[in-house]
Amino acid sequence: MYEDYYRFSAKPFQLNPDPRFFFGSKGHKRAMAYLDYGLSLGEGFIVITGEVGAGKTTLVRNLFRQLETHNLVAAQLVSTQLDAEDTLRSVAASFGLEHEGLTKSALLKNLEDFLSAATRQGKRALLVVDEAQNLTPRAVEELRMLSNFQNNERSLIQTFLLGQPEFRGILQSPDMQQLRQRVVASYHLGPLDADETRGYIEHRLRTVGWQGMPSFDDEAFAVLHRFTGGIPRRLNTTCDRLLLFGFLEEKSHFGEAEVNEVIADLKNEVAHQDFHGATGVNNHASAGSVLHSEDTARLAQRLDQVERSVNRILPIVRKILYTVSERNAAAGEEGMPPDRDSTH
Predict the structure, then answer these.
(1) Structure confidence at residue 6 as a pLDDT band (50, 70, 90)
(2) Whole-angstrom Cα distance, residue 211 to residue 207?
(3) Range 164-172 average pLDDT
(4) What's the pTM value of the predicted model, to 2 decimals?
């Protein structure tokens, strides 16, 4: 919706990973160097960890874009507490192989034949496992066994393991010893610092044709960094909402006040609320006891915040409805079908 207002060619802060928007922070450049090194070895496991939304998937997709796609056979698997055979079935399905109703030995045979054929054709086989912190020991063992497939002393498959920070601790457990021995490169992707946060925002804006409108002052960038902690996905969510706010309020410049207003609204939404410390009921009281006075005050304050947020949002909703109504009316006069998508 705001793209036309700011004359962007696309949404600059979409949540879906897109290698077009890859931003080479110090951490991302170093991680790319580790990935390149691991790939040059052509075997083993490469481990990338980072907070939720730190950019791990975007990093890997950017790497794939740099590789020659005709020499690459890549598959992605999202770990969801799979058992051993389900892991093999999921890997086979990720590579487009038959997997339903097959025994474990048949699955392994299909995978080995497929990987051998890819190697003969001069292609590199890569398996990307996301959410690796959810892998069970048995699933890890199945993935490790796949790395035993070799042809003339060369491994037929290489595996990337992408996980949240706790995966680093999991790797140190006794169950992971054999996997650790096959890790050829690993890196932890940290958050962006304050300067990188500004660079990240401006980079994504420039990618969609930003010509300086809207403008941001230094305080706006500082507040955005503090609120998001330099996590790219949080920056995307906050900046997307900021641009929507700017469109609805016809803003061409963002300062500290505008950013804080958007943050105040976000904090009243479920995805951004922090319920830690809100006990709700006195743990030492009986099941029928009333709320503690401090909890009651906290709830009253939260309700007041929600009411103020709703009062700010109502005019925005009215403007959206008015804009869509005007657009559909204009389309009707021109004999065009009405706009079915009022969310963009």
Answers:
(1) very high
(2) 10
(3) 89
(4) 0.71
SS3 state of residue 214: coil
The alpha helices in the chain, defined as continuous H runs, are: 2-6, 26-41, 56-66, 84-94, 104-120, 137-146, 166-171, 177-180, 194-207, 218-228, 232-248, 256-267, 293-333
Amino acid present at 1: M
Amino acid at 162: L
* 25 phi/psi in degrees, rounded to 5: -70, 170
pLDDT at residue 118 greater than cutoff 70: yes
Helices 218-228 and 194-207, axial angle in degrees (round to 10): 110
Q: What is the largest CA-CA distance in the chain?
A: 73
Residue type at 246 in one-letter notation: G
pLDDT of the residue at 272: 56
Residue 124 buriedness (CB in 10 A; 0-12 / 13-18 / 19+): middle
Residue type, 135: L
- Structure tokens that stand for 169 in this block: 């601790």
Alpha-carbon span 240 to 238, nearest angstrom: 5
Query: Token pair for residue 222?
Result: 């500082």
Contacts of residue 64, Cβ cutoff 8 Å, sequence gap at least 6: 19, 72, 74, 126
What is the pLDDT of the chain when averaged over all its residues?
81
For 246-278, give the secondary structure using H, E and C: HHHCCCCEECHHHHHHHHHHHHCCHHHCCCCCC
Task: Assess contact for 54 and 167: CB atoms under 8 A.
Answer: no
Give the model confidence (pLDDT) of 200-210 as tens digits.
Answer: 999 999 999 99
213, 173 in Cβ contact below 8 A? no
